[in-house]
């Protein structure tokens, strides 16, 4: 039944894309947008443009990987520069930070789509994304941005499963949201701080860790990993290497979060009534 259901949703996605005629994809190179790009290419052929936003909030390695994935898929690809750090409404890191970032991105994407006569701008937002606090959704609605994966009712697990069936290398890629999510609300976001956390996470990736986050609280780096990976940090030699590297980067204290890795952990300090007031959903 599960197999049939996800394939019905895939058919619905293809129908949605076919009706769109042409699309510009806000392309991050992650699981969802890569799957969406592949299906869009299959349905619309040359009438697909993938656009990746490069800035201090997104590691250069991820931008390069996005370009490689688009080239492998045979999809036209552009890299544009966004300057969200120049906007105090973003860099001051309020709870609706994502709204201001996405609004700038969608303004730029709208210009490109208008210049090129592309009918729709689409994102890789999926059904599961609606369960977390995502103020960027409001910016998408205001700009008339479509989310075909969500419209088709596809969950993250279904997208990963279908991606694997299609032979996409991204099917098991860990989620990698904007680096600004590593900082508590109210802590100013700067290029130097983003660079530090990017270096810290790259070090853990090179150690072989998959899904994790380095959350930053001033001079404290709080590492979140799934419970099964916590044993890595109980090894004296490995723990010593992590502490040594993180101190070189600029963190005075290095901690392991015993609650483990979870998405949106910085939202846990927001009262539910505050989220309800800010979230358009």
User: In DSSP terms, counting alpha (H) and pi (I) runs of 4 or more, how many helices?
Assistant: 11
Regions with pLDDT < 50 over 5+ consecutive residues?
272-281
Q: How much is the radius of gyration in Å?
A: 19 Å
Strand element count:
7
The proportion of residues forming helix, as a percent range, comes to 40-55%
- Say what oligomer this is: single chain
| Termini gap | 30 Å
> Could you give the order of strands across the largest sheet?
3-2-1-4
* Structural class label: alpha/beta
Could you explain the architecture of this structure?
Strands 3-2-1-4 form a four-stranded parallel beta sheet, with helices on both faces. It has helices spanning 2-20, 31-44, 60-73, 88-91, 97-116, 136-143, 148-151, 156-165, 191-206, 236-249, 272-278; strands at residues 23-26, 48-54, 76-81, 120-122, 213-217, 220-224, 253-256. The protein starts with a helix and ends with a helix. The chain is an alpha/beta fold.
Produce the secondary structure layout.
Blueprint: H1 2-20, E1 23-26, H2 31-44, E2 48-54, H3 60-73, E3 76-81, H4 88-91, H5 97-116, E4 120-122, H6 136-143, H7 148-151, H8 156-165, H9 191-206, E5 213-217, E6 220-224, H10 236-249, E7 253-256, H11 272-278
Parallel strand pairs: 1-2, 1-4, 2-3, 6-7
Antiparallel strand pairs: 5-6
Helix pairs in contact: 1-2, 2-3, 5-6, 9-10
């Amino acid at each position: 039944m599960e197999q049939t259901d996800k394939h019905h949703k895939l058919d619905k996605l293809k129908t949605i894309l076919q009706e769109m005629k042409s699309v510009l994809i806000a392309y991050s190179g992650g699981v969802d947008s890569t799957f969406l790009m592949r299906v869009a290419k299959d349905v619309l052929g040359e009438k697909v443009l993938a656009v990746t936003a490069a800035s201090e909030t997104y590691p250069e390695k991820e931008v390069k990987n996005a370009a490689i994935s688009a080239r492998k898929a045979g999809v036209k690809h552009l890299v544009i520069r966004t300057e969200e750090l120049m906007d105090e409404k973003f860099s001051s890191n309020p709870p609706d930070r994502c709204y201001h970032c996405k609004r700038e991105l969608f303004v730029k994407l709208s210009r490109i789509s208008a210049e090129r006569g592309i009918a729709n701008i689409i994102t890789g937002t999926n059904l599961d994304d609606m369960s977390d606090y995502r103020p960027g959704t409001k910016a998408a609605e205001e700009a008339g941005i479509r989310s075909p994966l969500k419209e088709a009712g596809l969950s993250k697990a279904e997208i990963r499963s279908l991606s694997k069936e299609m032979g996409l290398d991204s099917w098991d890629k860990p989620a990698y949201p904007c680096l600004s999510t590593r900082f508590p609300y109210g802590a100013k976001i700067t290029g130097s701080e983003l660079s530090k956390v990017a270096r810290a996470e790259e070090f853990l990736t090179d150690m072989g860790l998959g899904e994790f986050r380095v959350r930053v609280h001033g001079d404290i780096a709080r590492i979140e990993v799934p419970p099964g990976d916590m044993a890595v940090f109980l090894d004296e030699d490995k723990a010593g290497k992590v502490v040594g590297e993180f101190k070189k980067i600029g963190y005075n204290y290095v901690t392991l979060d015993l609650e483990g890795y979870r998405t949106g952990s910085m939202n846990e300090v927001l009262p539910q009534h505050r989220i309800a007031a800010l979230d358009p959903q």
